[in-house]
Write a structure and sequence with these properties.
The complex is a heterodimer of chains A (706) and B (149). Chain A is α+β, with helices and mostly antiparallel strands and 706 residues long. Chain A has 22 helices and 30 strands. Chain A has a six-stranded mixed beta sheet. Chain B is mostly beta strands and 149 residues long. Chain B has a single domain (10-142), classed as OB fold (Dihydrolipoamide Acetyltransferase, E2P), CATH 2.40.50. Chain B contains three helices and eleven strands, in the order E-E-E-E-E-H-E-E-E-E-H-E-E-H. The radius of gyration of chain B is 15 Å and the shape is globular. Classes of the chains: A alpha+beta (706), B mainly beta (149). The A-B interface holds A 183-184, 186-187, 190, 429, 477-479, 516-522, 524-525, 527-528, 531, 533, 537-541 and B 36, 38-44, 47, 49-52, 54-59, 87, 89, 142, 147, 149.
């Protein structure tokens, strides 16, 4: 059965059950406005939906009944037994039609003119009471009309006999209750963990087996509770076939829409958040992507274009892909437009890979469509798609081969209630940062901590070519200073267009945390995005970096303005090098522009598969390649890893230590004797090997067969 | 000033410093022993922090600070968990006493000379053999305006 119809039936059946009671109650208590309103709403909802579904008979009956109810509502008419009887008659007819719909999926034929006449007598200008005296035979014939087909009758009976027909075997439960269940399940897990630990200390404990049993049940319970919030992603897709069909008709194209993985489940809120962006992307594909049949034939493609929606789970995320086999996006045209719009300099644009260039599509106001159709192409759109997806903690990326089509890949977290976060410490207290707003982490030595550039009381950090205002988390939160010396970590955050650094004492962990709202008394503080309970039961505040920066407010803004004017003369970014040590004394470097992030990764979190080292990183598997054989992963130690991004692929090069960032004109003085090394140059006074990143990329992709 | 209590007329009694207080038994969800309180930097005075009550975040109220009562070093802490609206709060107190039925005759209005937070939170006084029991209104105690914005 059509999903729409099924939903409608389920909803209406629910409403009608209440309706009978309400109407009878109304007769007893004619002045009860809220009762009347609820009856009116129920009928109104049915009427409204009928229009969409093309159910004229049901629409006429409910419309007329609604009009009578409206007069009751406005007080023109009094809720007397006669009028109530007529409304109940209308409710009966509505029920009959609904039962028939459930059984046959079509509206039964029938004549409601008598019922309509009965109802309409209440709509006259002066509302004559008992205007038409209805003879018994008229009533009998009206009742005759109500006689149902046997199918409908059995459908109605089976509904009451608790068989799944129109009303599926589901009940509505408030989200609040589900959240409470989720909380309790979480607590149960903590208690179970304590029990497990206790029973593991004593092998002969008689509690061993029951605790194991409890443990399994707890895990299942937690899983089941999580599932209650889930919805199949297909429910966001139901409108798409219609949209594609309409566009195809309007533009004279032939388009086939293929939907895979509709049963993939994710959080209900995310399904809703996905709906609009997805509609937009599919619309774009159909309107701009797929060519007309002639053009397709001319370029050797089948006349019918294909749009494929694919949803699947991957590493704790849900991936939704929209792929079309249309004309794709012309990277050169995007490059030109980007330069015209001043988004990027000519040189930069030409140095960028096609993949990077295509991401300009997600910039606000960016459209390469030469003609604007009413369907799409107004230049609003992909940026909205991106911001909608990012708002719920997702990411969107695009790949396209000119002439062969385009794939947009949306990655969403499974649930909104859980975010990935950075757990940090400051002055002995623990805090969480939402990972989404963290750009990078920089380890600061005692020296660096002591001498920041200071401009009008604002400390600034030289981040490559930028000066970034810096606040200390402990100070910003008013924590009493302690005498803790040594290194600290600078968390570079992005909030809107502003970048700033927050100094924390230590980065403890990255964790998926459950976000809980803070109470009303704390909300006023304003610099927390919520709080969470860590695995050991501790409550930890989630810092909202943007609000924290706003709190350090005037100062940060003032600083940002000044920085604009005092910025150092721009240097050619190609000459910035990241210098790192490998093994004992050897020094190597890579161009800084190719580096995406620096990470510290514990050796214990490194996994091996097929002879390749990798680590779980932001929900992806990040392949790791040692920079040289001298770099080893020693258990219990952490390793510095340089993360590179190329398109949607990432990989990491493990090094012994990160040394410095230097700006220097590189002259490769000695040609390379080893694969993966471009050559040797004198950098910062030391002979340094400059690595060929693409070689390591290949190795990461293929596995370490060198 | 009339003093309103639930029909049962019962209060949960607790001690803060040397003073005994009572809150309407209908406002109290439970009484729990000491729990670790996570401090919330920048939260106003009178807010002790958050505690984790079986997975639920509960805002802990430092009643000493709220009602400007000095703290003794020997005080141990107990939590009276109260519900206000949809939210749970824990009143961090020194000792929790019995549930006490207040008979109408023993309940006096709060003296007009009370100042500050006391004047706003205290709704009545019960004469008892050992001294006076101050009946406080949970909502007013929580909404004490002395929280820094």
């Amino acid at each position: 059965m059509d999903d729409l119809l099924k939903d409608f039936l389920a909803e209406s059946t629910e409403n009608l059950a209440q309706l009978d009671q309400d109407v009878v109650e109304l007769e007893r208590d004619p002045s009860n406005a809220s009762l009347l309103n609820s009856i009116f709403r129920a009928i109104h909802t049915i009427k409204g939906t009928c229009g969409f579904l093309g159910l004229p008979r049901l629409e006429t009956v409910s419309h007329t009944a609604e009009s009578v109810l409206d007069r009751l509502r406005t007080g023109d008419l009094k809720a007397e037994p006669d009028v109530i009887s007529d409304i109940l008659r209308a409710v009966d007819v509505i029920k009959t039609i609904l039962a028939e719909l459930a059984a046959n999926q079509t509206e039964p034929a029938g004549d409601d003119s008598l019922l309509i006449a009965l109802l309409e007598q209440w709509l006259g200008a002066d509302a004559p009471r008992h205007a038409i005296a209805i003879g018994p035979e008229a009533i009998a014939s009206a009742t005759l009309e109500l006689a149902m087909s046997p199918d409908a009758f059995s459908a109605m009976r089976s509904t009451s006999a608790d068989q799944p027909t129109a009303a599926p075997s589901s009940i509505r439960v408030s989200v609040k209750l589900l959240d409470a269940l989720m909380n309790l399940a979480g607590e149960l897990v903590l208690s179970r963990n304590q029990l497990l630990e206790m029973s593991s200390r004593d092998e002969d404990s008689p509690f061993g087996a029951p605790v194991q049993q409890l443990s399994r049940i707890t895990a299942e319970l937690q899983g089941a509770v999580m599932k209650t919030r889930m919805q199949p992603v297909g429910s966001a897709w139901s409108k798409l076939p219609r949209i594609v069909r309409d566009i195809a008709r309007e533009t004279g194209k032939r388009i086939e829409l293929d939907m895979k993985g509709a049963a993939t489940e994710l959080d209900r809120q995310l399904v809703q958040a996905l709906q609009d962006p997805l509609t937009h992307m599919v619309r774009n594909s159909a309107d701009h992507g797929i060519e007309s049949p002639d053009v397709r034939r001319a370029s050797g493609k089948p006349a019918t274009g294909k749009i494929v929606l694919n949803a699947y789970h991957e590493a704790g995320h849900v991936i939704v892909e929209v792929t079309d086999d249309g004309k794709g996006i012309n990277a050169d045209r995007v490059r030109r437009t980007a330069i015209e719009r001043g988004l990027v300099s000519k040189e930069e644009a030409h140095a960028m890979s096609d993949c990077q260039v295509l991401r300009f599509i997600f910039e606000p106001g960016f459209s390469t469509a030469t003609e604007v159709t009413h369907i799409s192409g107004r230049g609003v759109g992909m940026d909205v798609v991106r911001s909608n997806i990012e708002r719920v903690g997702g990411a969107v990326d695009l790949q396209s081969v000119g002439g062969q089509g385009c794939t947009i890949r949306v990655r969403l977290p499974l649930t909104l209630a859980i975010v990935s976060s950075l757990i940090v410490s400051a002055r002995g207290e623990t805090f969480a940062f939402p990972q989404a707003s963290v750009l990078e982490l920089i380890r600061l030595s005692e020296d660096q901590l002591a001498r920041f550039d200071v401009l009008h009381n604002v400390r600034l950090f030289r981040l490559r070519d930028d000066l970034v205002p810096v606040v200390t988390l402990g100070d910003a939160l008013g924590l009493p200073a302690d005498e803790r010396g040594g290194v600290a970590t600078l968390v570079i955050c992005q909030a809107g267009a502003a970048r700033f650094g927050i100094i924390v004492d230590d980065v403890l962990d990255t964790q998926e945390i459950v976000v809980k709202p803070v109470g009303r008394l704390i909300r006023a503080v304003g610099c927390y995005a919520g709080c969470t309970i860590l695995g050991d039961g501790r409550v930890v505040m989630i810092v909202d970096p943007a609000a924290l920066a706003g709190r350090a407010g005037a100062r940060t803004n003032a600083a940002a303005e000044v920085v604009e004017t005092v910025q150092e003369p721009a240097k050619n970014p190609a000459d910035s090098l990241l210098v790192f040590g490998v093994g004992d004394d050897a020094v190597q470097a890579v161009p800084l522009s190719s580096v995406s992030r620096l990470e510290e990764i514990s050796s214990d979190s490194i996994e091996y598969a097929g002879g390749r080292a990798m680590v779980q990183y932001r929900g992806f598997l990040l392949p790791l390649v040692p920079a040289s054989p001298a770099v080893t992963f020693t258990s219990g130690r952490s390793n510095s890893v340089i993360v590179f991004n190329e398109g949607s692929a990432s990989f990491g090069i493990a090094v012994s230590e990160i040394r410095d960032i230097v700006d220097e004109i590189v002259n490769l003085e000695l040609a390379s004797t080893r694969p993966g090394v471009l050559g040797t140059a004198v950098i910062a006074g030391a002979a340094t090997e400059v690595l060929d990143v693409s070689y390591y990329m290949e190795r990461a992709r293929r596995g370490s067969v060198s | 000033m009339t003093v309103t209590l639930a029909p049962a007329g019962e209060v949960v009694t607790f001690r803060v410093g040397d003073q005994w207080f009572g809150v309407d038994v209908m406002d109290v969800q439970e009484v729990i022993g000491h729990l670790r309180i996570a401090r919330v930097p920048l939260a106003g005075p009178g807010i002790a922090g958050f505690l984790n009550l079986r997975g639920q975040i509960v805002t802990a109220i430092d009643v000493h600070q709220r009602l400007e009562i000095s703290r003794h070093a020997s005080d141990s802490s107990m939590n009276v968990v109260v519900r206000d609206g949809d939210e749970l709060f824990a009143l961090v107190v020194d000792e929790v006493g019995d549930v006490f039925a207040v008979s109408p005759g023993t309940l006096d209005p709060a003296p007009a000379s009370l100042g500050g937070a006391w004047a706003r939170a205290c709704t009545g006084v019960v004469r008892m053999d050992q001294g006076l029991l101050a009946v406080v209104d949970v909502t007013r105690l929580l909404n004490e305006p002395n929280t820094r914005p």
